[in-house]
Amino acid sequence: MDSSPIPLTQVKSAPDVAGSGSLGKDHPLSFIESLIDPGMLVLSLWGVGLYHTGSLRPEYLILSVIVFAMTFPGTTQIRSSLRKLVTQTLINWAAIAALLLVMGVATGYNRHFPVGALVMWLWLAPVSQIAAHRALRLAAPAILALRGPPRKAVIVGMNTQGVALARRIRETPYSQIDVSGFFDDRELHRLNAPMGFGLIDRLAALPAYVKANNVQMIYLSLPMASQPRILQVLDGLKDTTASIYFVPDMFVTDLIQGRSASVCGTPVISVCETPFRGTTGLVKRGWDILLASVILLLIAPIMLAVAIGIKLTSPGPIIFKQRRYGLDGKEIMVYKFRSMTVTEDGEKSYTQVKRGDARVTKIGAFIRKTSLDELPQFINVLQGRMSVVGPRPHAIAVNEQYRKLISGYMIRHKVRPGITGWAQVNGFRGGDDLESMQRRIEFDLDYLRNWSLRLDLYIIARTVGVVFKDTKAY
């Protein structure tokens, strides 16, 4: 057998074919969808500008650049029902429009636009987005037909990650991948064959099958410990033109921002990584500073009124400082308006606030219910200790308790803690029992896996409604 190494150009990491049912970054429909939301917002804005002024004036062009930067890449809606598409589009647009309004009022930039133009854009933008998404769904078969028939694929190794990959490909619409079946050396009765996929043959028959059936894609789903078998398979495929992808064992693990990378020329795969690296980190921090600055200017009178109310109704400090774990699990000092008669910082022990808790002051009950006690944390955001959106920080004693009970608990500290978060807007704001905490951590980790600026805007918009309907704050 020829033992010369297989060129790295032939062996690749498995592409994102079906992450959570998504199309994958290299799919043509994915690229088109990424342009729909920002593109239609910009085009509708230009249309409004031309209608009201007869030309594209500089203020419209500047706003279009800001809007595009805020919304690119767009949402994936090709699988959504019409009801879900409309709901999601309206929620996303409400969050973006609210943020643009706040920025416009704070900077005075809104004075450059007639009220009629803004109202027209407010209605035209989501309608054009919804229409464009539905048009793409109707045109998808014709677009994909231009690429030719689906690519034939086989999976080497009928194991857990191989079966999971086959199912995801099958469940992902427009994947353009036709999985013919599996190759494995084990007997059929030892395999857990998925419905709709069969065992084609043993590994030795793979090269001949690939040539005879014009197989274009091969997914190697063999254990990393099976290096001799992997090398043997690769050697047998040297005389084919099929693209070969390696599906590592980590495919079945709970990846956080999993991606391929290179360290001094050596390829590596990240298993657990922060979403805020490089450009995304700068974008996240820049938006935090901008949002916190604008919001602090707008809420300054409210904060002053709350501070006066606290001072007049109960003895003690106005600001309550409490130690929490922040980025990378390091201790930070978090600010809150004092809502209780005690100021325990939760380092050694922590007693969860109960309904009717005698420690809560009269004004404290109100500011806790409305989350006004959290407003000083925008100062923490400017300090770099917190983010506007992120996993909520827990008391140190709570952290130390649950990090021993919940797998992956400390992964949430790979990012700055937030004033509001994905768990909170999904109903997991209060409660420190194990089940509630597990669900909260699940949402926190889901946020890390799927972060985008749009998700942050969506969470901010949802937070406003949750604050006034939440029954778990007291």
UniProtKB/TrEMBL annotation:
Where is it localised?
Answer: Membrane
Start-end of Polar residues biased regions: 1-12
Output the GO biological process annotations, alphabetical, semicolon-separated: colanic acid biosynthetic process
Molecular-function annotations in GO? undecaprenyl-phosphate glucose phosphotransferase activity
Kindly list the residue ranges recorded as spanning the membrane: 60-78, 90-109, 115-132, 289-310
| Topology in membrane | Multi-pass membrane protein
Asked if the Swiss-Prot or TrEMBL record annotates the protein with the keyword Nucleotide-binding, the reply is no
Instruction: Tell me where on the tree of life, at the top rank, the source sits.
Output: Bacteria
Q: One Gene Ontology cellular component annotation?
A: membrane
Q: Enumerate the residue ranges of region (Disordered).
A: 1-20
The protein's matches in InterPro entries, at most eight in alphabetical order, are given as: Bact_transf, EPS_sugar_tfrase, NAD(P)-bd_dom_sf, Undecaprenyl-P_gluc_Ptfrase
Domain Bacterial sugar transferase, by residue range, is 284-469
- Which keywords annotate this record? Membrane, Transferase, Transmembrane, Transmembrane helix
Q: Which Pfam family name is an example for this entry?
A: Bac_transf
Where mainly located?
membrane
What family does the database annotate?
Answer: Belongs to the bacterial sugar transferase family.
- What name does the UniProt record give this protein? Putative colanic acid biosynthesis UDP-glucose lipid carrier transferase
Source organism of the structure: Pseudorhodoferax soli
